[in-house]
Amino acid sequence: MTAAPSSDRLMTRLATACALGSALCACGGEEAPAVLDLEIAGVGFMTPESVLHDPDADVYLVSNINGDPFEKDDDGFVSRLSPDGRVLALRWIDGASESVDLDAPKGMAILGDELWIADIDQLRRFDRTSGAQKPSIPIPGATFLNDVAVGPDGVIHVTDSGFAPGFTATATDAIWRVEITGGTPKLVTLARGEELAHPNGLCSGARDLFCVDWEKGEFVMISATGKREAPLKLPHKQLDGLVRTETARWFASSWEGRCIYEISPKGDVTARIKEIDQPADIGYDAKRSRLLIPLFGSDSVLVKKI
Ligand SMILES: [Ca+2]
Ligand SMILES: [Ca+2]
Ligand SMILES: [Ca+2]
To answer: Which ligand neighbours the alpha carbon of 75 most closely?
Structure first.
């Protein structure tokens, strides 16, 4: 006698899949949910530029420029979300507070127990757990710090996109390297010059560093001596965020292309998530294989399973 799959067992499986799904999961009882995506909108984001998964606290952090990306208005903030899309604290870190300086926060990275944030011409540092501010690191001459990446060696890199108000070029385009030795930050210009083409998204690997730029639309490796190597031109320019998955797939957002590109380990490029406006600095939730996409102009965040 064979044990036919019972309808009870099937329903249990469907119910489990629904429980694992998102708030958008529509349990009709007939089909397994295909959509595990979220759109978090109308919750109070103000010009969100970047989303970062903190895997230890298992929360999503959203940097909100709030106003002009160039203006030192001390009203930027960082929101804290649960992975199911609930806002745990809209202004978890709040520039409007007396004890916090934060103007136009953009890219973020976590180093040990600290959250680092690019903010015009400063690297802001906060306690990763409490959100309390720590001393900032000014970057001399920077005009538009944009993304921050931490390598496994604990070295921080930050891009200066080299923009002035109106997005005119300042020629300060650079990738800065920040080494913390004995608590004192040491700043090194790893790369500098307009050939960096308004560098934006950064991603650190075990022994390598990758960048996407705004002007040329290229995905490049940055050598240890700061050279742009093996440039791969993507179909559209205005590249912003860059993440890498544990299976060495890359994802990069393009404002001009209104999409997220996937770049395979062999270098094949596919537009994976399309028709989205102003996708800024994307994050990646490795635990759930999700892209975290801030939509700069519509004050929302998309969460997409990949
Ligand atoms: Ca602001
Ligand atoms: Ca303040
Ligand atoms: Ca950016």
So the answer is: 1
